[in-house]
Design brief:
Elements lengths: L10 H10 L18 E9 L2 E7 L5 E5 L3 E6 L4 E7 L8 E3 L2 E5 L4 E5 L5 E6 L4 E8 L2 E6 L3 E6 L5 E5 L4 E6 L4 E5 L3 E5 L5 E6 L4 E8 L2 E6 L3 E6 L5 E6 L9 E2 L3 E6 L3 E6 L5 E6 L9 E3 L2 E4 L5 E6 L5 E6 L9 E3 L2 E7 L5 E8 L17
Antiparallel strand pairs: 1-32, 2-3, 3-4, 4-5, 6-7, 7-8, 8-9, 10-11, 11-12, 12-13, 14-15, 15-16, 16-17, 18-19, 19-20, 20-21, 22-23, 23-24, 24-25, 26-27, 27-28, 28-29, 30-31, 31-32
């Protein structure tokens, strides 16, 4: 099924029918069964207001940043904060590779830290970092203000390259390539050294976040279309009108692609052909990408309800209910799912660690048999 246009007023009706009347279904890769609602394993208090993303750090730590300039390293099993690094005010989540942590502040400083929060190097940029930090092939890549897509050497912070032509409206990266969507309607595919591999015209109305899987790039358009391009050939694979633009990166297991859209729905489509499998409304305002775990797709929104859906058919359950509004995308780290919310005071936030694998009940001691 390929859909390029819905007549006015019929978009949601057609989507609803496709979702509720026995449309095609795919079964995703299996994983151990999860019991819902999830069990709260730990709740940690952190300094707020918070940057709206938490990150897996070295050695099992969870990294959380505050807008006022504190990078906090949490140890969830110990329910403790191991260290805090104080930089300048920031709206940036850190990036992590191995035992190294990278973070940026609003004053243009970029920091390289070790696993204990000690400064290894500092670089001051002409313009502050905007959007995400990503490590690609030993380079720390980011958008430098309105100047260029820029890369530093991850080891020492030296400037590796800067490419004004790739100044992104949005960008993403894999292990060995960087994909930048420009205001001119191009996807520019670069290697980690900043060399241009390919340019792909996708149209100037492209909008929302990008999702990358293998040679497939998933992207939205301002008119509510959502589609996929083949990076190896530069050709469009498919397009479908869903009425919203991607909020956060779409995610996929290679068979089904899941996307949260600005019209407050989660949609599931066949990754290779674009067939609509199902869609479901979110509990609150669309704000975060989905999180895929085996046969389940988790979706947080600007509400206290953390939703979970069966990836194959969209069957919905409540994964967890928080005391206040969810503030960041859910992150699966090890056997836990992590959420972040505001606290009871303006400078307080909470990080929740939820068990994906229910703890085993203690075995009852065996009663010794009476001697005859």
């Amino acid at each position: 099924m390929r859909i390029d246009h819905f007549p006015a007023g019929l978009g949601l009706a057609v989507v609803f029918l496709a979702a509720s009347c026995g449309g095609p279904k795919l079964q995703p890769k299996t994983a151990p069964a999860v019991k819902f609602p999830l069990i709260e394993a730990a709740r940690l208090t952190v300094k707020a207001p918070l940057v709206s993303r938490l990150v897996a750090g070295p050695g099992g730590l969870v990294l959380v940043a505050s807008i006022t300039g504190e990078l906090q390293a949490l140890d969830p099993p110990a329910k403790a904060t191991r260290w805090t690094f104080s930089g300048g005010p920031s709206r940036m989540a850190p990036a992590v590779e191995g035992e190294r942590i990278y973070w940026a502040a609003e004053d243009g400083k970029v920091y390289g830290l070790d696993a204990k929060g000690k400064t290894l190097w500092t670089r001051t940029l002409e313009e502050p970092v905007r959007g995400d930090l990503r490590v690609v092939g030993g380079r720390l890549v980011f958008r430098e203000g309105d100047k260029a897509l820029t890369a530093l050497n991850a080891g020492d912070g030296g400037v590796a390259w800067s490419d004004p032509a790739s100044l992104p409206e949005e960008w993403t990266a894999g292990e060995d390539r960087i994909i930048s969507r420009t205001a001119a309607g191009l996807l520019r595919v670069l290697d980690p050294d900043g060399r241009l591999i390919r340019e792909i015209p996708v149209g100037e109305t492209a909008a929302g976040s990008l999702g990358l899987y293998g040679n497939d790039i998933f992207l939205g358009y301002a008119d509510g279309r959502f589609g996929a391009f083949d990076l190896s050939t530069g050709k469009k694979r498919w397009s479908i009108r869903l009425g919203g633009i991607p909020v956060g990166p779409p995610v996929t297991d290679g068979r089904i692609v899941f996307v949260v859209l600005s019209n407050h729905i989660l949609a599931a489509l066949r990754a290779k052909r674009g067939d609509l499998l199902w869609w479901r409304p979110l509990a609150g305002r669309a704000a975060f990408p989905p999180c895929l775990h085996g046969a389940y797709v988790f979706a947080g929104s600007r509400s206290a309800v953390f939703q979970v859906f069966a990836a194959g058919d969209g069957t919905e359950q409540t994964a967890f209910t928080t005391p206040s509004e969810i503030l960041a995308p859910a992150e699966k780290i090890g056997s836990k799912m992590y959420l972040m919310t505001s606290g009871d005071a303006d400078d307080e936030g909470f990080v929740f660690a939820l068990d994906l694998i229910p703890p085993k009940a203690p075995e009852k001691p065996k009663t010794p048999e009476a001697k005859k």
